[in-house]
Amino acid sequence: MTCNLIPDRAQALQIHEDLGSSKEVIEHCEAVARAAKEIAEKLQAKGVNIDFKSVYAAALLHDIGRSRTQTVAHGYVGAELLREKGVDESVARIISRHVGAGISKEEARKFDFPEGDYIPRTLEDKIVCFSDKVVGPHGRVVPFQLEIDKFQRKGLDAKRLEGLKTSLKEALGEDPEIGLD
Q1: Pick from 81, 79, 103: which is nearest to 91 by CA?
Q2: Could you tell me the domains of the chain?
Q3: CB atoms within 10 A of CB 1
Q4: 44-82: per-residue pLDDT in tens?
Q5: Distance linking the first and last C-alpha atoms of the chain
Q6: Its pTM surpasses 0.90
Q7: 3-state class percentages of the chain: helix first, strand second, coil last, to nearest 5
Q8: Coil vs helix vs strand at 47
Q9: Residue 28: which of 135, 124, 101, 181 has the closest Cα?
């Protein structure tokens, strides 16, 4: 199957419906897409080249894997579901890398994931991953620090998560949380 579809909002919502996503997942994905769109637009306004369509589609679909699993595997599961539907690799890759602050190859082996790179590498990956971390319950934007605190309470190393924000801050020239609503 040729994988070149970059879904618009209507197509993304149809994919959610086809795969049985819950109302809560869809609402969360739409809120993450709004945040990702704001960050991507700020970067574009600064002259940074961003694959806006892929960012927006990936944000709208980032939790599609939750239609099959509620585990950390939902990222790569969602990417596989979308590849089967002909969605472009640029979108699938972003979705496979949005969980936590990314999952290293060593961590992926522990989780028994397929061999792959699950760390956000591109600005597009980082925008969606970060946006997911600042959208809390009921689609409200929450401080990024809450996600760092959650990581630390779980005994996880938050350095990669902090690096995600730092990377976006450097690209934007300002805190990526500024202006999100």
Answers
A1: 79
A2: 9-172 (1.10.3210)
A3: 8
A4: 999 999 999 999 999 999 999 999 999 888 999 999 999
A5: 38
A6: yes
A7: 60, 5, 35
A8: coil
A9: 135
